[in-house]
């Protein structure tokens, strides 16, 4: 197997996993019950003054579970194809998720988030920065979508398909919004 094919497989998995993360994040914000029983904890944790480690047991467990599932699936695919780039991609995505989580929440400090006065992000197509993610925590219902973990482009695409996609969310099935921002 060539090095290019190995790195290509790792990149394909990484891109696909990032897309899945973004879509899941979008769907959890459009499912009141799922948000209440799980994800709201994450938002509450980072909207108050810092009082704990950057990564707690719950977050490590969440990332670890996703990593085990991804690595198991990608290892099987690697065995079937002979291309170990898929398994490598799963391992790299786990490391990336841990490191990027710490970077994305680097603004978490003794000063509560909304008192930090961070300006809102622009609708970009670049990397999702820590300030970009901070805006998501401070204003999760803003018209500028900030669900992406790595690439803002996924959010721009979500904004375009939101009027159609929201109908397939748990909350959206209950009512069809008349404007893209109503389901947020």
Regions with little confidence, pLDDT below 50 for 5+ residues: none
Number of helices: 7
Total beta strands? 0
Q: Cα-atom Rg, whole angstroms?
A: 18 Å
Mean pLDDT level: 91
The biggest beta sheet, please?
none
Shape descriptor reads: globular
Distance between the termini: 46 Å
**Strand residue content:** under 5%
What pattern of helices and strands is seen along the backbone?
HHHHHHH
Sheet/helix structural class: mainly alpha
Relative helix content: 55-70%
Explain what this protein looks like in three dimensions:
The chain has 184 residues and is mainly alpha-helical. It has seven helices and no strands. The longest helix has 26 residues, at 3-28.
Secondary structure topology:
Elements: H1 3-28, H2 32-46, H3 57-81, H4 85-104, H5 130-138, H6 153-165, H7 170-174
């Amino acid at each position: 197997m060539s090095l290019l094919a190995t790195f290509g497989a790792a990149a394909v998995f990484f891109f696909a996993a990032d897309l899945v993360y973004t879509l899941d994040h979008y769907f959890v914000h459009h499912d009141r019950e799922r948000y209440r029983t799980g994800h709201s904890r994450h938002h509450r944790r980072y909207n108050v003054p810092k009082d704990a480690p950057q990564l707690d047991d719950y977050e490590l467990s969440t990332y670890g579970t996703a990593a085990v599932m991804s690595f198991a699936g990608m290892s099987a695919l690697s065995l079937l194809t002979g291309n170990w780039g898929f398994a490598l991609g799963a391992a790299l995505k786990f490391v990336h998720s841990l490191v990027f989580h710490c970077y994305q929440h680097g603004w978490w400090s003794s000063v509560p988030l909304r008192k930090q006065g961070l300006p809102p992000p622009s609708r970009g197509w670049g990397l999702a920065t820590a300030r970009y993610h901070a805006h998501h925590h401070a204003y999760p219902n803003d018209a500028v979508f900030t669900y992406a973990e790595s690439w803002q482009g996924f959010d721009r695409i979500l904004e375009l398909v939101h009027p159609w996609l929201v109908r397939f969310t748990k909350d959206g099935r209950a009512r069809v919004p008349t404007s893209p921002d109503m389901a947020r």
